[in-house]
């Protein structure tokens, strides 16, 4: 595999490097000796010793990492702490490819074999990947040029992963991680390492569309700031400077977009060994180193500071920030506790969102229901108002019809009385003898009066009939009204109003009669006192007093009349008020009854819908069961038919084998001609038995019998010829009859 080849190459490279080192050491020692003899200058010796010390350190690092790679399994199991210390000091550039693969166990992934097949497929994220490739390391030589090799292999790896993990697909920050991997190793190996990073280093959860893991990291990081840098946390809160505004790219790209590439690569070495813990440590170390400057800035100033000042602070190297990072307090148990708290908070938020959504839905439904009820209420009010107006009109028409009916009845009675009087007068006149001329004229006049009376009677009868028809029509219309109790109440109220009106009219008539009596009395008094104006002063005074008394009585009577009229008006107003209150109460009762009926109908509708859905479901289940039963029955029938066919086949084969055995035995011990005749008889008998026993499925048995006879006789005949055609078998003389059946080769001639 490529991993084995790479390991062998690195071993060979280390061996060659050591050999070259030995040669250079020997040559340097010789040159130093010769130089000391020729020149006694000390500057050359000091420079050569410094460079030799540096080269010794590099060579020792290479030798050490070569041993680590060769003995990786033992080092990973037994010397994990020493391995972490080595990684923190930095992995040599030429060892990064294999060490990263070893750290994440990506050297022998089976998905590597699928890489070429994945590149042939089409990804739905190809446009997004093409768009963001130019933004990934735009200043690096490997990715700077458009359509270069670096951009092409970066596109291939991102496309392949988007096909492997369709839930995550593609996220822009992941391209920087893949780009760093491609700077160290080929694209197939970079693809395998990236797959392991996404699966085992929590990067997949960070790059999911929901980014729930990123929110958790922000929460944990903010809690660490609050605990270890409280003043800076208070300043961030005062400036509304959220953690995600500056730290989200740290977690998504592992500082690859925030720091210089050599520094970010050193941090990535530690990330490959220890995971996201280094991101928390380095992030808190940066804040701790720049706390004094950040407290003096506002939100925009802090953003500019993180983008422009912080990256240049690490140009000298990452050793200082890594040293400060490992002085930061990091408690894994507390991080687990914070993760549980964040999960609880998010669960509560989700429940609250679900509850808010449910309440909003209920509120919307209630508003719709209120609007519907208001519309229904308006319709009911209009209907009640129209019904009240209609009933008032009908009551008024009913009252007028009854008055007209009473008038017509009175007129009819008067006409009938006049008719009776005229008839009695005619009879009297007919009985009295007198002047014939006078009696004839009088009779003509009486006849005219009789005709007029009859006409009036007919008119009154017609009017009476019309009034009766109107009454019947009104009664029919009253019966069509929805609430009979209301009509009865209205009739009772109308009767009460009529009684009160009759009492008031009676009182008014009495008052008017009193007024007329007083006026008559006053006129008589004036008539009596008309001739006494010339009497003495005493009489004049008495008359004046009487006049004043009469005038006072008249005014009293008028006042009483006005009082009665006022009471009558008050009574009418109270009656109208009572009628209106009754109408309003009835309207409210009808509205309540309609609302109750609406609720009942709504409940019935829901119940009926539920029953309908249940019936549909049961019907669907019944249909499915019926179909399954029908299919099962058909399958059983097919199995039975197949079993019957197999049994018939076996029976026919057994019969044929039995007959074949008989034929073999007889051919070995009997005469050929006699045996042929017996065979004919047996064939005819067998044909009859087959026809009787296998009427529906005999052709298959015939074919088998034909095949067996033809096979033993050396030729094939149609089934009908075997059963019906007379045969003659001739055996050669040199053949013995007691030979086995398979040695005979009879010749058959068909007659």
Properties at a glance:
751 residues, Helicase, Ruva Protein, domain 3, disordered C terminus, two-stranded antiparallel sheet
A few lines on this structure:
It is built from 26 helices and 2 strands.
- Span between N and C termini? 82 Å
Describe the strand arrangement of the main beta sheet, using strand numbers.
Answer: 1-2
Task: Tell how many strands the DSSP assignment holds.
Answer: 2
Structural class comes to mainly alpha
Write structural notes for this entry.
InterPro entries: Rab-GAP-TBC_dom (IPR000195), Rab-GAP_TBC_sf (IPR035969), Rab_GAP_TBC_domain (IPR050302). This is Rab-GAP TBC domain-containing protein. Residues 90-275 form the Rab-GAP TBC domain. Keywords: Coiled coil, Phosphoprotein, Signal. It comes from Electrophorus electricus. With 751 residues, this protein is mainly α. It folds into six domains: 1-32 and 47-92; 104-199, putative rabgap domain of human tbc1 domain family member 14 like domains (Helicase, Ruva Protein, domain 3), CATH 1.10.8; 211-330, Cyclin A, domain 1 (Orthogonal Bundle), CATH 1.10.472.80; 333-473; 482-631; 670-750. It has helices at residues 2-38, 43-70, 72-78, 80-89, 96-103, 115-120, 126-133, 149-164, 174-184, 187-200, 203-207, 212-228, 230-238, 244-253, 261-274, 277-289, 291-295, 299-313, 319-325, 332-431, 436-480, 484-528, 537-669, 672-693, 698-713, 719-724; strands spanning 727-730, 747-750. The chain has a two-stranded antiparallel ribbon with strand order 1-2. α8 (149-164) packs across α10. It is elongated and about 170 Å long. The two termini are 82 Å apart.
């Amino acid at each position: 595999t490529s991993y084995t080849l790479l390991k062998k190459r690195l071993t060979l490279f280390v061996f060659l490097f050591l050999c070259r080192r030995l040669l250079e050491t020997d040559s340097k020692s010789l040159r130093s000796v010769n130089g000391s003899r020729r020149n006694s200058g000390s500057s050359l010796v000091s420079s050569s010793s410094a460079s030799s010390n540096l080269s010794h350190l590099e060579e020792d690092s290479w030798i050490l990492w070569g041993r680590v790679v060769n003995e990786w399994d033992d080092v990973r199991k037994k010397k994990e702490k020493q391995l972490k210390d080595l990684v923190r000091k930095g992995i040599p550039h030429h060892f990064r490819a294999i060490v990263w693969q070893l750290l994440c166990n990506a050297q022998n992934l089976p998905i590597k074999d699928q890489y070429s097949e994945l590149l042939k497929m089409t990804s739905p994220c190809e446009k997004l990947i093409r768009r963001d490739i130019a933004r990934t390391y735009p200043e690096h030589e490997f990715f700077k040029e458009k359509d270069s090799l670096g951009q092409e292999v970066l596109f291939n790896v991102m496309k392949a992963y988007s096909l492997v993990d369709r839930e995550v697909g593609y996220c822009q920050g992941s391209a920087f991680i893949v780009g760093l991997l491609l700077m160290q190793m080929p694209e197939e190996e970079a693809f395998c390492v990236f797959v392991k990073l996404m699966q085992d280093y929590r990067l997949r959860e960070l790059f999911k569309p929901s980014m729930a893991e990123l929110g958790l990291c922000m929460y944990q990081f903010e809690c660490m700031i609050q605990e270890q840098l409280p003043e800076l946390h208070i300043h961030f809160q005062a400036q509304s400077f959220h953690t995600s505004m500056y730290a989200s790219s740290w977690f998504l790209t592992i500082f690859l977009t925030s720091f210089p590439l050599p520094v970010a690569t050193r941090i990535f070495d530690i990330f490959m060994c220890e995971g996201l813990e280094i991101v928390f440590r380095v992030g808190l170390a940066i804040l701790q180193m720049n706390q004094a400057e950040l407290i003096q800035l506002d939100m925009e100033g802090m953003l500019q500071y993180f983008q422009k000042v912080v990256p240049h602070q690490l140009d000298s190297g990452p050793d200082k920030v890594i040293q400060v990072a490992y002085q930061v307090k990091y408690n894994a148990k507390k991080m687990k506790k914070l993760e549980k708290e964040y999960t609880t908070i998010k669960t509560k938020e989700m429940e609250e969102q679900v509850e808010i959504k449910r309440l909003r839905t209920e509120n919307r439904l209630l508003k719709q229901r209120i609007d519907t009820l208001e519309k229904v209420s308006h319709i009911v009010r209009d209907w009640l108002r129209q019904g009240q107006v209609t009933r008032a009109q009908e009551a008024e028409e009913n009252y007028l019809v009854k008055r007209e009916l009473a008038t017509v009845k009175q007129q009819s009675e008067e006409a009938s009385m006049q008719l009776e009087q005229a008839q009695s007068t005619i009879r009297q006149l007919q009985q009295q003898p007198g002047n014939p001329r006078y009696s004839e004229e009088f009779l003509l006049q009486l006849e005219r009066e009789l005709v007029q009376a009859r006409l009036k009677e007919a008119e009154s009868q017609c009017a009476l009939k019309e009034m009766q028809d109107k009454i019947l029509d009104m009664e029919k219309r009253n019966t069509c009204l929805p609430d009979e109790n209301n009509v009865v109440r209205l009739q009772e109220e109308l009767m009460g109003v009529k009684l009160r009106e009759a009492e008031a009219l009676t009182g008014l008539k009495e008052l008017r009669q009193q007024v007329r009596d007083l006026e008559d009395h006053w006129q008589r008094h004036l008539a009596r006192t008309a001739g006494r104006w010339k009497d003495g002063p005493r009489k004049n005074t008495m008359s004046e007093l009487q006049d004043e008394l009469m005038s006072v009585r008249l005014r009293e009577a008028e006042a009483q009349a006005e009082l009665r009229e006022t009471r009558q008006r008050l009574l009418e107003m109270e009656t109208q008020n009572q009628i209106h209150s009754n109408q309003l109460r009835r309207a409210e009762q009808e509205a309540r009854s309609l609302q109750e009926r609406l609720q009942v109908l709504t409940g019935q509708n829901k119940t009926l819908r539920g029953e309908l859905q249940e019936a549909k479901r049961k019907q669907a289940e019944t249909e499915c069961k019926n179909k399954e039963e029908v299919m099962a029955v058909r399958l059983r029938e097919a199995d039975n038919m197949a079993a019957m066919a197999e049994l018939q086949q076996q029976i026919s084969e057994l019969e044929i084998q039995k007959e074949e055995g008989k034929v073999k035995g007889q051919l070995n011990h009997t005469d050929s001609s006699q045996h042929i005749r017996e065979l004919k008889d047996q064939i005819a008998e067998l044909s009859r038995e087959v026809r009787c026993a296998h009427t529906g499925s005999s052709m298959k048995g015939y074919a088998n019998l034909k095949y067996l006879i033809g096979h033993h006789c050396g030729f094939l005949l149609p089934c009908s010829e075997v059963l019906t055609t007379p045969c003659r078998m001739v055996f050669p003389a040199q053949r013995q009859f007691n030979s086995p059946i398979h040695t005979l080769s009879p010749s058959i001639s068909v007659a």
